[in-house]
Structure formats: C-alpha cells, structure tokens
Amino acid sequence: NIANPRQEAQHDVLKAKVYFDRPIGRISLQYAFQMNRRKEFDVRRGALNEIPSMNLEISTHTLDLDWEHKTKNGFSGNVGINAMYQNNKNIFGTQRSHFIPNFTAPSAGIYVIERWTKDKLQLEGGLRYDFRQYDIEGWQQFQDFYSDAFSMQSITASFGVIYQLTDNQTF
After folding, report:
1. Angle (nearest 5°) at CA 66 between 64 and 72
2. Whole-structure pTM over 0.70, yes or no?
3. Whole-angstrom Cα distance, residue 125 to residue 158?
4. How many helices (H) and strands (E) does the chain have?
C-alpha cells in the first residue's frame, strides 16, 4: 500500500480501423475513444487524507480519415482530416478548488503531404490547418463560478530532404 502523495489512474481505450483499397489508392477511417479516470491524493490532515485532492474524468473521441494516393511518376502522398472531441469533468467532493477546470474541446485539422522520389533522393512537403475550441467552466476557491471560451487556429508547413548515401546510411 502506497502512502500519500499518490495517484490512482484507470485508462481505457477502444479503437476501430477500416480501410479500402481502391484504384485511386487506399482510404482509411479510424475511430478511437479513450476514458481516463484519475485521482490524486495529497498529504492532508485527518479524514481529508483519504479524499482525493483531484478527481477527474477525461473522455476523448477521435476520428481520422486518410487517403493515400497511388504512386505516379515518383509522387506519393496523403490527404486527410482529423477530428477530436474532449471533455474534462471534475468529480465533486474533493473539498479543494479544481486544479484543471471542467472543459470541452472540439478540434479539427486537415492536411496534405506529398513525396517525390527519384533514385536516391526523396523530397517531402506538407501543409496542415488546425482549429481548436475550448469551453471552460468551474468554481474558484471561494465558490465563485467562472466560465470562458476561446479558440485557436494555425497553419503549419514542413519540407524535408532525404538522400540515401549507402544501403545503411541516409542524410
């Protein structure tokens, strides 16, 4: 038996993936669900020592759709979308202010990656757009209710070069 401070955590995952090979390439779809239950126990006085100072559940749903097109003239690549919905819920009864507020966070992204290969040289470029929304609410130390909402978005790009020096070395 471990004394405080300590954690109790349970993490469950469910995942399903299906793909279809078509003349235009491979199309894959994946769904995943995660449930994370977490209790953290601090060193506290008296009966509070047995009550978690943090007790929360985080559930996450993800959905990914990807198309990998067939290689043609040295070009190969992927186009896809990602979606996620996350919900954090504090469990009542810790007798402490919540370290992590209750929130919901939907998000989505779209991406394209293209590769060109010729002999020992490979060039790769990618572009991605992401959006994330947060809806937050909770109770402050003296039981004052608060809520807020905000969103973020970004565009990212990448470029890479690989050159095969030998069978076992790349640069």
Report:
1. 170
2. yes
3. 5
4. 0, 7
Length of the chain: 171
Mean pLDDT of the residues in the chain: 93
Which amino acid, one-letter code, is at 147? Answer: S
Amino acid at 57: E
Three-state SS across 63-82? EEEEEEEEEECCEEEEEEEE
Other Cβ atoms within 10 Å of 103 Cβ, number = 20
Q: Which residues of 141-151 are buried (b: 16+ CB within 10 A; e: fewer)?
A: eeeeeeeeeee
Classify 167 in phi/psi space as left (phi over 0), alpha (psi -120 to 50) or beta.
Answer: alpha
What mean pLDDT comes out for the span 31-38? 97
User: How many alpha carbons fall within 13 Å on the CB side of residue 144?
Assistant: 4
∠ at Cα 102 (100, 105), nearest 5°?
100
- DSSP character at residue 56: E
- Kindly indicate the confidence band of residue 110, based on its pLDDT and cuts at 50, 70 and 90: very high
Burial class of residue 52 (count of CB atoms within 10 Å of its CB; 0-12, 13-18, 19+): buried
Does residue 46 come out as left (phi exceeding 0), alpha (psi in the -120 to 50 range) or beta?
left
